[in-house]
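---------- Forwarded message ----------

FYI, see the Aminotransferase record below. Original note from H. follows.
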Amino acid sequence: MEPEALSLGILPPSLRVEVADPRVLSDTQTAAYDLKTRAATDSVAFLLDPSYCFSSRSSLKLPISLVQWALALWGGDSIAHLALEERPRQFFFAPAALLFNSDFHANASVLGSLPQSGDIIIFDEYIHASCHDGMKMSRAKDALIPFKHNSLSSFKECILRALQLNPGIKAGKATVFIVVEGLYSMDGDVAPLKEIVELMKSLIPPESRHLIVEEAHSSGIYGQAGRGLVSLNGLENEVHTRVHTFGKALGSAGAVVLTDAVIRLYLINYARSFIYTTSLPLFNVVAIGCSFDMLELVGDELSARLVHLCRFFRNTLSSNLKLIPAKIMTLTKTGKENLWSPIFPILVCGSLDLEACLQAKGYDAKAIPYPIVPRGAERIRVCIHAANTEDELLRFITELVSWAAAYQQKDGKKERNIVL
């Protein structure tokens, strides 16, 4: 059976190409798809040593190796890999899915491969570094338009500017790629996805728009069974490409791009970080499958508990900070109304000092100082987990407030000395 070739419809006619899925197997090829024929990079034959394998108890029912496989295009993707791609495709209600080794690989591949010359990329100024790297590698690298973080008015202005820069967009001869995240990791706030979709649809013709939502931090948290912010808002049919990682809430590694079948095939043929990267090891594939099992079994229960703990943490810390000047410590607003974020940026004066204090108390605290963030926006970032308890959060809040009170007292002495 020859793999079917498809036309990449998102490109202008002059740039459209035929792409094929080289990983499609015939019945005969599948029968011969054993360990010996697949160990392309296993030069010392670890892969064939029984001491390096264990039997999977998962539904895959395959021998699982603890070593890495070959490149995906050259036999590196087993039946297990292809079966796993079907799992998120069905779980997230997507037309097609493609596995990547990491969220960074996925973002860089999507944005480095899809935009073509004449296209324009509009993106939130706070999107992840991997998205920036991908855009800089794309053929549209000279047509990047950032909009102010989560600002709908700025977003609208950028669309109007794009339409003015390239009249071919309205004629369907070029594409506007729009890139946002679901939940932003540094500020803990969520994108106004419904409003973004409404503006996009009102200003850009259907054949000339492509919305990409990076759901690394919203996976496993929002929506039914943790399907993400796009699912929560019922926007599966409006968002062209979604990127979900398995390395955050799902507790594993790797990522999946959810898109249509044509774009999936295009990425297989043209995404360099997919083509030239060794496939995920099979134990990773099994772990990801187990993560989806957990989401389906207890995802809603864990999300509900997480919401409770987030509400408890915010309300309790806010109450305890009333007597602390905002210049010393303040809890920024995160999430949206009725949509709690588990990421809490706490702006502090002396983030490195607070880091040392918390580490001495046994907390794995990491300051985020200037120049990582602008001056005056130094912070520590607290991430709440469903496995936390209220007592743990109370003890942590006590340490935060005690440090802030001591810092306030020390700061007051400095001011008095200056006056004297």
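H. also flagged this: The chain has a mean pLDDT of 83.
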